[in-house]
Amino acid sequence: MSIELSKIVQSMEPSATLAMSGKAKELKAKGETVYDLSLGEPDFGTPKHICDAAVAAIAAGHTRYTVASGIPELKKAVVANYKDRWGLEYDPTQCVISNGAKHALHNSFFCTLNPGDEVIVPAPCWVSYTALIKLCGAVPVVLQTKESDDFKLTADDFRAAITPKTRMLLLCNPSNPTGNLYSKEELKALADIVVEKDLFVIADEIYENLIYGDHRFTSFPTVRDGLQDRTILVNGVSKTYAMTGWRIGWTIAPAAVSKKMGSLQSQETSNPCSISQYAALAAITGDQSCVKTMLVEFEKRRNYVADRIRNIPGLSCAEMGGAFYAFVNIKEHLGRKYGGKQIDTSEQWCLELLAQKKVATVMGSAFGTEGYFRASFATSMENLKESFDRIADFLK
Ligand code: PMP
Ligand code: GLU
Which stretches of 235-330 are DSSP H helices? Predict the structure, then answer.
């Protein structure tokens, strides 16, 4: 008799971003040259002083289990950072250090949602939100935003989507995959509804340090009183410090929620890697010039990508205020033949682009919005240039 899968995992798909990057890696392993814009992962090495701190942590014997919810020094540094930047006061016990922000999101959903609860997820949305919500038996209510609203959830649309089962709003700001940023006023309009309807919010602010041009980031709980008690902040070091492989993220949540998350973690995973926690501590408390250096480079790439998209007939893209993604409208290029092959969906388009031109991107449908592809510009200028030359050629 074969082992039966649980009902809850039967419909679970692998992460589409990781699946596309996996396809690119497979081709590379076969000796093909692949131009990979699939993954949102900085191509920079982790800054040296952070790596040195990890080596020092090993030498100092920080190689054992830590407190399941993370080392107190790191929690203290994380909350001090929110106080310094946003004036938000939290107790270090409200912070839980996890194995990346993805794990922090899982903890957040698992500790707050009951089966049947609805979570409003503005789309286009990052690929893992809906899967993680469904794993709790809760219901992601994917709400399409409009390109004409810069893909931002409006207060009217939010209000109209609320039902008696709505518990939570998920806000990803700056957004993966569109790079849009909410203004303080826009956040305030959403926050007023959150308070009026007695909801709570998961604010995924993992791209908060990657902001371009005149754009300004506002942390959600700062926009009015009464939000700290109904917001779970999610963040981490992966994107800001080029530390994707170290697996450190965190939540800052109301004390009772954090306590349970710590218990959940103690049962499920124990502590996140002890060495990575010391590295993350060095990242947060150390010299921040590395962040600026990487940001300058990302901004050059963002400007280059925006320019390329503007100059390829039939492609368009909303202004990227933050993060490192372009969400590119290809509607004019669907419903036609490519090399004799009919292409109607963004998935077919991305797979064919990979097959014919060896450029890896992610289909808009994976983010809940058809008619687009996502290109990550967390990669070298050479890679971007060759990729967009090939995309232009593909569209001819
Ligand atoms: N949130 C968003 C919006 C992301 O793009 C990512 C990317 N991986 C994560 C959370 C998770 O980040 P990590 O687990 O690497 O900390
Ligand atoms: N968040 C990144 C992305 O969207 C990394 C992959 C993932 O975790 O989904 O590409």
Answer: 255-268, 274-285, 289-310
